[in-house]
Design brief:
With about 200 residues, the protein is α+β, with helices and mostly antiparallel strands. The protein is built from seven helices and seven strands; from the N terminus they run ββααααββαβαββα.
Length: about 200
């Protein structure tokens, strides 16, 4: 019986010595070693850029045209490639919610009737904030179920990113965004969260 042996360079398996077909894992490790210096340089440059952006505020970044001038509808010239860069920069300026927070809400996020002087209950309809919370929570329910949903404003994506900072994925599609959760990160954390 052959067992795996752990060494400094990683685990050695019997397939590592097979010469009849290429070992994809070994080839991948060799490619990573060849490109390690370039990868480290890119990572260093990215960290320096992030530090530079963190010293600025959003208004300065908007003046430099690093990010869009609005938090609402996308600019006409926006592409998915420029959006992905902007999304990473915008995430530097948000603080994720605690993991216990599972949906957008708050004190005034649910509809309720209110009493009047005659002690009767009147209903005036839901407020804009209540409608917005319902909309965001519906998107959360869909993407947590493994589906793709849609956003139409940048601030909606930023609110979703506060709840799913590391696993929210977006794609700009000519006037709207597709949003979903990175399933590989969710499975590592123990599965999809269901409300």
């Amino acid at each position: 019986m052959i067992t795996n042996h752990s060494v400094f360079g990683g685990n050695i398996e019997i397939e590592d010595f097979n010469t009849s077909y290429p070992n994809k894992r070994r080839i991948q490790n060799q490619m990573e070693a060849v490109h390690l210096q370039q990868t480290l340089e890119k990572r260093k440059q990215k960290i320096e850029k992030e530090k530079k952006y963190k010293r600025m505020n959003l208004e300065e970044l908007k003046k430099m045209r690093v990010i869009s001038n609005t938090d609402c509808r996308p600019a006409e010239h926006l592409t998915d490639e420029t959006w992905q860069k902007e999304f990473e920069i915008r995430k530097l300026f948000i603080t994720p919610y605690d993991k216990k927070v599972q949906k957008l809400g708050g004190r005034f996020s649910k509809e309720s009737a209110r009493g009047t002087a005659e002690n009767c209950r009147t209903y005036d309809g839901c407020t804009n904030w209540q409608s917005y919370c319902t909309f965001i929570n519906d998107i959360l329910r869909n993407i947590r179920a493994g589906q793709v949903d849609y956003c139409y404003y940048i601030y909606q994506i930023m609110d979703l990113a506060k709840l799913h900072f590391h696993d929210l994925k977006t794609k700009y599609c000519d006037g709207y965004w597709e949003v979903w959760l990175d399933s590989s990160k969710l499975h590592k954390e123990g599965g999809f969260i269901d409300e």
